[in-house]
Amino acid sequence: MQQTSLGPLRDVSRLTLGGGGLGRIWGETSIEEAIATVHAAVEAGITLIDTAPMYRDCEQVIAAAFAGRLPDGVRITTKHQLGAPPPGEAASRLEASLDASLAAMQVARADIFFLHSNICPDHYVYARHPERQAMFATPWRTYVDEVIPAMEALKGRGRIGAWGITGVGVPDTILAALAHDPAPDVVQAVANLLDSPGGMRSYAEPPRPREIIAAARSGGIGVMGIRAVQAGALTAAIDRSLSPNHPESKDYVLATPFRVLCDELEADPATVAHRYALTMAGVDTVILGVKNRAELVDCLEAEAAGPLDKDIVRRIDALGLRQD
Do the beta carbons of residue 233 and residue 194 sit within 8 Å? Predict the structure, then answer.
């Protein structure tokens, strides 16, 4: 397993084990298989595990896998979807969520703690689900005046090693957050061949993930690539039931020419999609949404195969599938 730096973290594996699959968000798996997948990932050289309380059983899986003793060199992340709390409450809500996650996983601290919310301009109204945006979006002034000081205080007290943002909010605001001083240590950014956040996107503007990755790289901010297979849209078949109108279903249809190309290359679409994400400039580590050991093995083989040939990248990009 190749290793890299991720913001202030050194010796981070190029693949990160994500908690969504372990927590049974991306299709069904058993707790026992999820635990076995965690152990297999660590044995294969994965040194970072990305969790969140929203990932159903993920924290339970981590506790069961390690019983409070992370293996040497293994780091853990967690998150909090703060939304838009009343003034003055962000710090206490962030710390309460951190406390609960650490207790659930039976670990003493988080190596990275992410603001899981979108970040949006003050008084912004989302195109999708505006009636719920107070739950999933944090306004800019709350981010600057409350979230940043709270995160910096947690880091100063040693409760977290670093802090970050999930960079799928309104793109102009995410770019402003990356340029702000202090900036996050790490950003989670969409890294797939469609440039698609899929169902994570509730704003109307173009998503601009490559600009976000480039801005982070320019500022020395670590980048964790998310949605490498766009929640299944870039695989041979989506592994759960979705409405035809779901963003992932629409992206699956959009990606039909990509699967045709993979057939020509005699390659599995998920493998090619993961290798594409690992090839993207500025992406330090790619988060896996695997839910079992078989899927993990496929991703390990993709990483071991190395970057995609430049000609294959050009052929994929020439399909014209990137979203705007």
Answer: yes
**What is the distance between the alpha carbons of residues 27 and 257, in angstroms, rounded to a whole number?**
24
Spatial distance between the Cα atoms of 324 and 29, rounded to a whole number of angstroms: 34
Average pLDDT over residues 139-166: 98
pLDDT band at 290 (very low <50, low <70, confident <90, very high): very high
Question: Could you write out the three-class secondary structure of 95-144?
Answer: HHHHHHHHHHHCCCCECEEEECCEEECCCCCCCCCHHHHHHHEEEHHHHH
Q: How many CB atoms lie within 10 A of CB 217?
A: 16
**Rounded Cα–Cα distance for residues 115 and 99 (Å):** 15
Q: Are 66 and 40 in contact (CB under 8 A)?
A: no
Find the mean pLDDT for residues 105-121.
97
324 pLDDT more than 80: no
43-69 CB burial, b ≥16 within 10 A, e <16 = ebebbbbbbbbebebbbbbbbbbbeee
Q: What is the pLDDT of residue 286?
A: 97
Q: Which residue from 38, 59, 58, 36 is spatially nearest to 47, judged by alpha carbons? A: 38
For residue 166, the cross-strand partners are 188
State the pLDDT at residue 31: 92
Give the whole-angstrom CA distance, residue 101 versus residue 154.
14
Cβ(91)–Cβ(56) under 8 Å?
no
pLDDT at 60: 95
Q: How many helices (H) and strands (E) does the chain have?
A: 14, 12
pLDDT classification of 307: cutoffs 50, 70, 90 = very high
